[in-house]
Amino acid sequence: MNHMVDARGKQCPIPVVETKKVLAQMNQEDQVTVWVDNEIAVQNLSKMAGQKNLQCESKQLADNHYEVVLAFSPAALNQKAEQAPVAAPKVAVPDKTVVVISSNTMGNGDDVLGASLMKSFLYALTEQDVLPAMILLYNGGAKLSAQQSPALEDLKLLQEQGVEILTCGACLNHYGLTEQLAVGSVTNMYSIVEHMMQATKIIRP
Length: 205
Prior knowledge:
four-stranded mixed β-sheet, Translation Initiation Factor IF3, five-stranded parallel β-sheet, alpha/beta, 7 helices
């Protein structure tokens, strides 16, 4: 059976959320076809498929019209069979510190000073003995992971040291930076909320 989700015109993370709801009700031989209107939504669905070991194919049907088809792979079926019928309560991951950055400046007042402070903060972060598990970038913070960002060198160093760098895809799109992401990967609001809920500590510079 083929299920259909028309998520065109719907903002992140609605396409992912609606698709997850359909997947939860699907039989093993079913598949779901999702229509979206932007490449960021395609990337978010593909990333979710990878996390859940799902088969995923995508193609562009027309301008602002993309199709993503998801189906259960053998690995996903095994994972689904092992899950308990009642979802276990979500718990925080031990020692998961998450740095959340919502602006390309630090603090309020002078933006030139704020930009300098943010660069200094990220540099100081690279020098810490204990690093965070990840850095979440959204709204103006999305500019920090784009090409020509003064913080790029420090973010790349943090990534090399094992820190996961995730940038809001809708934010990159809003600022016209989708094609300029230079470090880390794209994420969506659903995943941002998940990571923040699972964090043992959240740091907001």
